[in-house]
Amino acid sequence: MTDHAADPSTDLTYGPDTTPVEIGERRGMFGPRQGGDTTGYGGLVTPILLPGAAVRPYGGYFDEVADALERALGAGGTPYEEAVERVVVDRGELTIFVRREHLTAFAQSLRDHPALRFEVCTGVSGVHYPHESGRELHAVYHFISITHGTRRIRVEVTAPDSDPQIPSIVGIYPANDWHERETWDMFGIIFTGHPALTRILMPDDWPGHPQRKDYPLGGIPVEYKGGTVPPPDQRRSYS
Amino acid sequence: MTTHHDIDTESGASVYNVSGGDWNDLVDEATALHEERIVVNMGPQHPSTHGVLRLILELDGETVTEARAGIGYLHTGIEKNMEFRTWVQGVTFCTRMDYLTPIFQETAYCLAVERLLGITDAIPQRASIIRVLMMELTRINSHLVCIGTGGMEMGATTVMTVCFRERERILRIFEAVTGLRMNMAYIRPGGVAQDVPEGMTETIRTVVGELRKGLGELEALLNENPLLKGRTVNVGYLDLTGCMALGITGPVLRSTGLPHDLRKSAPYCGYEEYDFEVKTRTGADSYDRLRIRIDEMYESLKLVLQACEKLDATQGQPVMVADKKIAWPAQLSVGSDGQGNSLEHIREIMGTSMEALIHHFKLVTEGFRVPPGQAYVAVESPKGELGCHAVSDGGTRPYRVHFRDPSFNNLQAVAAMCEGSMVADVIVAVASIDPVMGGVDR
Predict the structure, then answer these.
(1) Chain A residues touching B116 at Cβ < 8 A
(2) Nearest CA to B307 among B154, B152, B200, B156?
(3) Which 230-249 residues of chain B touch chain A by CB within 8 A?
């Protein structure tokens, strides 16, 4: 995904930052994280790059959606540039990074503006990027517009680990009730304004948030015919 | 009746533990104590809650005033586990989510991985046909269990025996094609694990005939049955507005008259080449959902026959992507001891090509790498939109996989469907959502 990375120096003074986003780095060539390196490639450091912002035209219905969003947000008193941090088009999918303070206004426009009409939010899930400092927690929403022929967009909202709060959109999309509870349960993202943000899959008194990357998988070694098989997260692996 | 009641020390409320017996006795006992408000915990171990669903019902007499669903009793951390296995091994995990629709999770996951790899267009046609064939058979399978258990919960055991008898025919096909009756891990990133055995299309055609007969029997038993209609018509009502607000998809949404089906509106796996209809009705109640499921099974049979035709036309074509960096080199073959690697392949890697052996070993133990990024792919499962959101960091394992299970989302409608109705209608309403707790809790 690095091939379409534009050089920022040749970029025009005005325009989106198309530099890929670094979310971490990979060491060595074969990916073992435990044990010594005997390959001689241990010094290799490769950044892990997620696609950067896209430039217009985005292609397909994405431009239409972006135009409609600009109009809808402008009419609602929230400038598009302020609410939207970045627009990424990757693998035929449109991702809009929205600043968390503008999420509710954004979701309202998504649902109500006649040119958008994303009636259904198919839920939110989280992704934890521990190395992306200041924006470790991502809440990823997927919307679908049945009116406009099953259009889909993804909305991503980030929050730092130190202040894991994102406004709830349950008031706009009631379907998100359980999804937000699940994301709180699994990632510890506090959806402010949710009517009853309690654990949903884990027991009520469970400590920690299991889907975070700093939460171990757990497991016990298994003895079999004299040999011991370590739990999956402690096995030598090549990721 | 085995009832005993204690006084809860904290709230001072009476706590009744009931296990069987006559409901009226309990009501009488509670009335004697001047208790107007009763909170009933139905489940998580209750035969009519579709597994381990816990329903918390607040009752006024026999009317439900508040209904809440408690879930999580079958949470097995599949999504977390998948982050510690290779991309191919992930299939083995996600197939176990909704255990009635294993092929759908596998397909959604594989389509997401394929989109991440950028090989969506390179998937062989025959692989897509097999996927469609398996998905449609699974759809019938899932609907049969839904109707069968739903009937059983209402006390109609014959419905259950008919449905499970017909389901058995489909499971036999699954066993012949994949080696397993459920949780097959058959769809793999890049294609399917193995081609269908020779002569399978003929077997399937015979089974389709038998299924048609069985479905006819089911229809004769249910469609105009006054008892069934009495229990299901206008029960569990949820209109289009409610469905949209609560993000409900699948038969529940189609029972409001909206023909939303991802197979038509956003085709995948070549569904645009098949001829079928999206069945809708307008009653928005449990009865219409049941009828839609029956109609959908007939549509699925149509699709299965069309897939068989296409399979016959593509005989001998590959079922796995050509990219040797993704496709496992070995095809399985049935040896004297059941299944095993094909002798031809063993001969090659042991005798002539050490590089092939190394390649095979690396691909199986380490797995392939997927370029960083994210993808969301949704398929129309029997219960509604099943979405798979996969994130890769460029490694050999998923960085994060999230499944948007339709049952999880649709269960939110329990309150809207049940509040204000009778206790007995709760069972019918929940059965009409068709939640499978394995998928809900994952």
Answers:
(1) 91
(2) B200
(3) 244-249
Query: What ipTM was reported for this prediction?
Result: 0.87
**Cα distances (angstroms) measured from residue B289 to each of A132, B68, B262:** 46, 22, 18
Asked if B409 and A175 come within 8 Å (Cβ–Cβ), the reply is: yes
Percent of chain B predicted with pLDDT > 70 = 90
- Structure tokens, A234: 């402690």
Q: Judge if pTM exceeds 0.80.
A: yes
β strands within B29-154, DSSP E: 38-42, 54-60, 63-70
A120, two tokens: 């259904």
Residue pair B368/A31 in contact by the 8 Å Cβ criterion: no
- The pLDDT assigned to B174 comes to 92
A16 close to A87: Cβ distance less than 8 angstroms? yes
Distance, C-alpha B60 to centroid of its chain: 35
Q: Which domains does chain A have, with CATH numbers?
A: 1-30+43-52 (no CATH), 54-234 (3.30.460.80)
**pLDDT digits 0-9 by tens, A152-164:** 999 999 999 999 9
Q: Are the C-beta atoms of residues A21 and A4 closer than 8 Å to each other?
A: no
| Residues written for chain B | 442
User: Which domains does chain B possess?
Assistant: 3-70 (no CATH), 78-323+368-441 (1.10.645.10), 332-365 (no CATH)
Residue B376 forms contact with A (CB below 8 Å)? yes
> Tokens 């229990």 label which residue?
B231
Distances, alpha carbon B60 to alpha carbons B8, B33, B40, B420, B421, in Å = 20, 14, 11, 10, 11
